[in-house]
Structures are given as structure tokens and as C-alpha cells.
Design goal:
Helices cover 80% and strands 0% of the residues. The protein is mainly alpha-helical and 227 residues long. The chain has one domain. It is globular and about 60 Å long.
Amino acid sequence: MLAILKNEFFHTFKSFKSVAIVLFFTLTSVVTASYLTSHPELLGNFDSQAAYTSSIKFLIFFFGFLFVFAVSHDIINREIDYQTIRLLVSKTSRFNIILGKFLGSFLFWIGAISISFLIVSLYARSWFLLDYLTVCTVLFFITCLNIFLSTWISRPSMTMFVGILLGILCPILGFWAAFSSNWYLLPFKYLLPYYYVVESNGYLVIPFVIGILFLAASYFMFNRRDL
């Protein structure tokens, strides 16, 4: 499993899209934190924690699905498409393949976000733990969903299309449902992480649990697939 984890982590990191996204995160964090530090009067009108971490949270909440799907939409089905999955299955269990792929992808995004939060914390001279955990929880959910889609859909080109579609629709429907009482939005309200992010605190456990269910479903589908 560790070999799969390391391979997936470095495979993701070597992608041009991944490097560009990490640099974009870092640059945005530096610019935001630097500007707020140079203009402390702006913090008088807003909560300082929300102000310093606003750019990171905005990027993850509104573009997190697109970022993850763009980089790792074929995380499982590319192995099936290239038939390299047979080599992996001969070396380790299917559970280790799913878990290793997930951890490799998730740790990449945690690393990228940690760099951004570290930069902001150095400028603000404070560590924004709740915001950090909130962003990590959303990334956990998205990564689990990405594993599920790549296991469920066998064609990498199709997961790219579905990933782009969901990357656009999920933030819109998620935030709309979080602040709406319309009955037809209830599935999006309770399935997507945005309502729980708005409620915050103990509610953040729920997207984590839903993510675990996506991973479990991925494993059972993968385990029953004839490779």
C-alpha cells in the first residue's frame, strides 16, 4: 500500500496541472496575507481569522471539485484502461489499492493546503485551526467522491466530463441548498459538504462520514469487478 501511496503522490505532484494549482494557491495566500498585513485597518471591519483565510476557503469551496477532478479524475480507471491494474492486483490486495490511491491523492492536497495556511499563519502570527480542519474535511469529501467516480465509471474520458460537470454544479447547488428550505434541494443539502461547513463545529464530522461511505462503496465495486 505504501508503494501505491508514494507512487500516486509523486505522480500527482509531477503533473503540470498540479504544480500550477499549488503555485496558484501559494501566490493567492501570499498576496492576500501581505495585503491584509499592509492594511490592518481593513481587519477592523471583519473578523481577522475569516479575512486571512478567506482566499483559501473561497478557492476550495468554489473550485475544489474542479481542482481535484482535473488532476485525478482517472485515478482508478486509468489503471484499468492501461491494464496495469492486473500487475497491482498481483502484488497487493484490492483494498490496499483503493486505500493507497486515496491516501496518495489526499495527502497531496493536504500538503498544498498546509503550505498556504502556513504562509497565512506566518503573516497573521496565528494558527487558524478550525478553518484548516474545515478545508481538510471538504478536501477529504471531494477526494473520496473522486475515487468513487473513477471506480464506478470505467472510461477516463467520461470521468473527466462528469468531473467538470460536477465541479461546476456542486458548489452552486451546495451553497444554494445550504441556505434554502426548498424540498427539491434537500438531497444536495445533506449529501454535499456545504451545509455542514456553514453550520460548522460538530457538523464537520458528517462530510467525513459520507466520504468514508464513498470509499467503502468504491472498494465493494472494485472488489466485484472482473479485471
